[in-house]
Write a structure and sequence with these properties.
The protein is built from 9 helices and 4 strands, in the order αββαββααααααα. It is found in: Membrane.
């Protein structure tokens, strides 16, 4: 953990503190920074960022080029050049990507993908901790959109299945107006929730508690 902490400090990574401010991480002040729900200091995404910084930070600090060989191919590792960058340029390394953390993956599978009791519920904080802001925001939108679709779905079924008699000619215009109004309200409520989510994960100083209540 100390290696990751020092890497985060060198990267000037921003993390949320217990006073609601997002500050540059400092290993010497580690107790001031908010931990993950499982007690770990860094999220899976933050750990990957630190590991990536460390492996790309392996550079040639000697005073000369170093000859490297892979199969029948020979190339030179230049001064102050990242070793991994050179290996990528030479085609030795094709791709760098993180492996799944099996415990986290199974937890998300059980509490999220296989949760049939409330299929619209999203463990957004866990998704954010594992995948980051973009993926968490996408699934927050998907969950909200699925719940909101209940209203036009019920209205559409009623329009098709119920005979309104002499008022039938008013049904379609009323349904059109309802759907347009629904779209406007959905957009406004989503903008509000989206702003709250983004502020929650990248909070403005002093607003962390208010944002938490707003999202919940």
């Amino acid at each position: 953990m100390g290696i990751l902490g020092r890497a985060a400090s060198e990267m000037q990574m921003k993390k949320l503190t217990y006073i609601g401010m997002e500050l540059q991480f400092e290993w010497e002040q580690v107790a001031a920074f908010v931990r993950q729900p499982d007690g770990s200091l860094f999220s899976w995404r933050e750990r990957f960022t630190c590991f990536r910084y460390l492996i790309y930070g392996i550079v040639n600090k000697t005073n000369s080029e170093i000859s490297l060989k892979f199969d029948d191919k020979e190339f030179y590792w230049k001064q102050n050049e990242s070793l991994l960058r050179r290996l990528e340029d030479e085609g030795v390394v094709k791709l760098v990507f993180p492996l799944h953390e099996e415990v986290k993956r199974k937890q998300l599978l059980r509490n999220w993908a296989l949760n049939w009791h409330d299929f619209t519920w999203q463990p957004i904080d866990e998704v954010y901790s594992y995948f980051g802001t973009k993926i968490a925001t996408y699934f927050a939108f998907l969950g909200m959109y699925t719940r909101w679709l209940f209203f036009p779905a019920v209205s559409g079924l009623a329009t098709q299945l119920i005979d309104f008699g002499s008022f039938q000619w008013l049904v379609l215009p009323a349904f059109f107006i309802f759907v347009i109004s629904w779209a406007v309200f959905f957009l406004q409520f989503w903008k509000r929730k989206n702003s709250a989510l983004l502020a929650r994960y990248h909070p403005i100083p002093g607003y962390a508690v208010v944002i938490q209540a707003l999202v919940d």
